Amino acid sequence: LQWEAALRRAIERQEFVLHYQPQVSLGSGALIGVEALVRWHHPEHGLVAPDRFIPLAEESGLIVRLGEWVLREACRQNRAWQMAGLASVPVAVNLSAQQFRQDICALVAAALDESQLDPACLELELTERVLMDDEVLSTLQALKRMGVGLSIDDFGTGYSSLGYLKRFPLDRLKVDRSFVADIGQDGDDEAIVQAIVQLGRTLRLRVVAEGVEAWRQWRFLAAIGCDDVQGFLTGRPVEAGELERLWRAWR
Ligand code: G
Ligand code: G
Ligand code: MN
Ligand code: NA
């Protein structure tokens, strides 16, 4: 409860910051997107990682307000980068299942309108948990009509049902980093990643591999036709200013 009160205060005092991690095309090496990842600048504990407060924010329902801020801030920042002359690429924002209990379409519309960001430059990352609920289908269809991108995060770890991929209007599949970690060492993981990439191909979904830390993983993923990578190899999550410097110096 102490943490819940602290979290509530933190939302009021805007103690959160977004870090951004590059997503890179395996074919061209270009920066083709960024994922926004929230951090809490706690006045005493310093920078707090999301796995320490997102679950709490979800339990307490505070994720709805936090999620609103994240979405607005990510859209504003992406538009600011475009105005500063950087390439137009999508910013990916993580959505919690709880956020689908509010009018997420209205929120997305407001964030796009305020920021004047092109809907194509926003991607929403869904978990398999969101897709378990058939009632979200019409919501996702409405978001798709608005022109935003939809991806499935941590693919392969949740309550995976391949039916989701067919039923929902998804654009992209993010291979969970637990399958990527042992590429080059574990044949089973390699087979799983290869199968996911094939599946993506067949269903015309772009596939991005998460948690890429080494060139051996890059080479394997390129060889099997994976589209993009996201990981420490090509860039850690960093503050907006640092991401901008990195981006301007890109290749
Ligand atoms: O950035 P990091 O690897 O520590 O993130 C840990 C987890 O927190 C990831 O699963 C990520 O999806 C989640 N996360 C990060 N930012 C957000 C956010 O803005 N909203 C939600 N719902 N989850 C987030
Ligand atoms: O669950 P989600 O994919 O949204 O979370 C992304 C999380 O993965 C972030 O917290 C980020 O810090 C972390 N991450 C990003 N790249 C790497 C990587 O190369 N290795 C590891 N171990 N974690 C990573
Ligand atoms: Mn994510
Ligand atoms: Na993930």
UniProtKB/TrEMBL annotation:
It comes from the Bacteria. Residues 1-251 form the EAL domain. This is EAL domain-containing protein.
